[in-house]
Write a structure and sequence with these properties.
Number of strands: 18
Number of domains: 2
CATH architecture of the largest domain: Alpha-Beta Barrel
Helix content: 25-40%
Distance between the termini: 63 Å
CATH topology of the largest domain: TIM Barrel
Strand order of the largest sheet: 2-1-3-4-5-6-7
CATH class of the largest domain: Alpha Beta
Radius of gyration: 23 Å
Length: 479
């Protein structure tokens, strides 16, 4: 057993395509012991599988499943059937070598996907060690069934071994994403992904990160992160690098160290990050981020209502959120804000509190994305709440997307309030309007080229959106 084919099955490109960071980390981790090839199915929906299999003739195929669904409560997309039809079934027709499943979606529903896809093996949680150990055991003729993180079949049952999260610093190979796949379409539409930590110590009621990555932070050395960015930037001049961590600025001090290291090792790069937690936003942090090259951040409070902040299990207080918003505005850091409505205890008064906060504290030049409903995942606090309230049953596997929306408002009631709110707030997008109109996107691209705009794309789109006739009489929030 020498050749390992790794396949990316994530074809979702809304709002932009996401390069397969985890798969590239695996490829880098395996290449000392195996001949590895990555097939990126993001843009061909499996059309290139036959060429990849027949040309490479793998001894094992590893297939990653990133998303179960798109987290949209109504009219959303369910990806698992698509992965089975476009990737798994064609693979089974092309080769009989062992099929190993992995990825974040697989880690949430390993038994279901092993059965549905007819896979031979699986790996839950992080795979750099578990998948390598599985492959070495298969190569050497040993039974991998007892290895940590390995999913196997025994006596007609699916057995899921708990993963082993190694304590201490996070030491991973450099992903070198652009060396494993054709990065051209990602460079044009998205960004180069970078991971700085794993684990999360917070208690957000809907979140699966603590279950998948552990509840203890494991941090990469800031110098290693900066070195990775410097090397990739030399290969990809002008690329944007995105930190994909669930909380970039946790624990305190790590993000600041990363920024300082980037200033020293990779000056002039362009950066962005998701998951800036309001509880740790300071003027010092944002100053260092701007010095390092951050052009945009995403901030994820979910709510500004004191009652809902407690209900959602957030780690910050209303006063902490207020301080964060004012620092972001004072430091003029372009920000996309995320608010999630409909959680336990939500009503018209708590929605009004969040909307009032948006009007008072968020710049009209910054984008606010509003969602309805919380996806219920197994073994989360929200799952226990839904069980207690009878919204789901103990035998529900939750693979089919199931959302919590607080009665009596329900989905329709929350949606009605958000659509009304967005009608007079050009920077607020309710569900269903999160993807730019194609004509508006074309106009934005032309405007950026004509005027030499370097601002984040969302700000250019907001310029055009404010000119829509429906917003002619809208009163902007105070500056």
């Amino acid at each position: 057993m020498k050749r390992v084919l790794l396949i990316n099955t994530n074809t979702c490109r809304i709002p932009y395509p996401v390069a397969p960071l985890g798969l590239c980390l695996l490829a880098s981790a395996l290449r000392e012991d195996f001949e590895v090839r990555v097939h990126d199915g993001a843009f061909d929906s499996g059309a290139g599988l036959a060429e990849a299999v027949q040309g490479f003739r793998p001894d094992v195929v590893g297939l990653t499943i990133r998303n179960v669904d798109d987290l949209i409560a109504r009219g959303g997309t369910f990806f698992l059937d698509q992965v089975r039809d476009e990737f798994v079934r064609p693979l089974r027709a092309l080769t009989s070598v062992p099929l190993v499943l992995g990825g974040s979606a697989f880690s949430l529903f390993p038994a279901h996907l092993m059965d549905d896809y007819g896979a031979d093996w699986g790996v839950v949680a992080e795979g750099e060690h578990a998948f390598r150990d599985l492959l070495l055991a298969l190569r050497d003729g040993r039974d991998p069934g007892d290895l940590p993180g390995v999913v196997s079949r025994r006596d007609g049952r699916i057995v899921v071994n708990p993963p082993r999260c190694l304590p201490g610093p996070l030491v991973t190979p450099r992903a070198e994403v652009d060396l494993h796949i054709d990065f051209t379409p990602y460079r044009r539409l998205g960004s180069y992904p970078v991971q700085a930590r794993r684990g999360c110590s917070h208690g957000c009621i809907y979140c699966t990160y603590p279950n998948v990555e552990g509840r203890v932070y494991r941090l990469r050395e800031a110098s290693d992160i900066a070195g990775e960015i410097a090397e990739a930037a030399a290969r990809l001049p002008g690329a944007t690098f995105e930190f994909v961590d669930s909380t970039f600025n946790e624990p305190p001090g790590h993000a600041e160290a990363i920024c300082d290291a980037i200033v020293a090792a990779a000056p002039g790069v362009r950066l962005r990050t998701m998951g800036v937690n309001p509880g740790g936003v300071t003027a010092d942090l944002l100053g260092r981020m701007k010095a390092a090259g951050f052009a945009q951040i995403d901030c994820t409070p979910d709510s500004a209502s004191p009652r809902m902040i407690r209900s959602l299990g957030k780690n910050f207080t209303p006063d902490g959120l207020l301080r964060a918003a004012r620092v972001i505005r004072t430091e003029a850091m372009p920000t996309v804000w995320f608010f999630l409505f409909g959680g336990p205890g939500e009503d018209e008064s708590t929605i009004a509190e969040s909307l009032d906060f948006i009007d008072r504290e968020i710049s009209p030049d910054d984008l606010v994305l509003m969602g309805v409903g919380l996806r219920i995942y197994p073994a989360t606090p929200l799952h226990r709440i839904a069980l207690r309230e009878g919204l789901v049953g103990p035998d529900d596997d939750l693979v089919t997307p199931t959302f919590y929306v607080q009665p009596p408002l329900g989905y329709d009631g929350v949606m009605r309030l958000l659509v009304q709110a967005a009608a007079t707030r050009p920077n607020c997008l309710p569900p269903g309007e999160n993807t730019p109109d194609p004509d508006m996107l074309r106009q934005a691209v032309e405007m950026r080229a004509r005027d030499g705009l370097a601002e984040p794309m969302f700000r250019t789109l907001l310029r055009l959106r404010r000119a829509w006739p429906r917003f002619a009489g809208a009163t902007p929030a105070p500056k």
